[in-house]
Amino acid sequence: MTSLRLMLATxxxxxxxxxxxxxxxxxxxxxxxxxxxxxxxxAQSLVGTDPVLALPYPGTDPHGMMLxxxxxxxxxxxxxxxxxxxRNYGPEGVTADEVLEDPVEHLLSVTVMxxxxxxxxxxxNNWFWAKYLPDGSxxxxxxxxxxxxLVGKGADAGCIACHExxxxxxxxxxxxxxxxxx
Length: 182
Fold this sequence. Notes:
Elements: H1 2-23, H2 28-43, E1 57-58, E2 66-76, E3 79-89, H3 96-101, H4 103-106, E4 107-115, E5 127-132, E6 148-149, H5 159-163
Antiparallel strand pairs: 1-2, 2-3, 3-4, 4-5, 5-6
């Protein structure tokens, strides 16, 4: 009987942890912050109606078959931090030339990492994650949660769950350059 209670308690704790992880992202505050972040990126011509372009390179799921990645800084709500913007293009089989010829037609989403102020979430180096649709609205997971904030923290899938595997402890796959003081 004791081992059954222990198993049930462990299962309940695991379910509560997963539920808490899902609540760590997509809140109204996360969505508001993501909207302010989109405005900051738009002001730098990284998103929006006439963004700067770079030479696309081959990608893979969950991002896109062709990608553009930009590194820089942004200021959101008075905080300046490192910004990583990845434009995700498709469909499968799309070429770099096709993307350059008509980027609007091929843009599927924009995924972003923005390093927020110290104390936001030290476990993830204070990264804020967001996945936008081409119009700047937030994408959603199958359960309808807006993909903004600590997406995938403590879960088996999602931004943080994947990027935890990046070397160097910086959550970045595409560069080993030191972008932050952390």
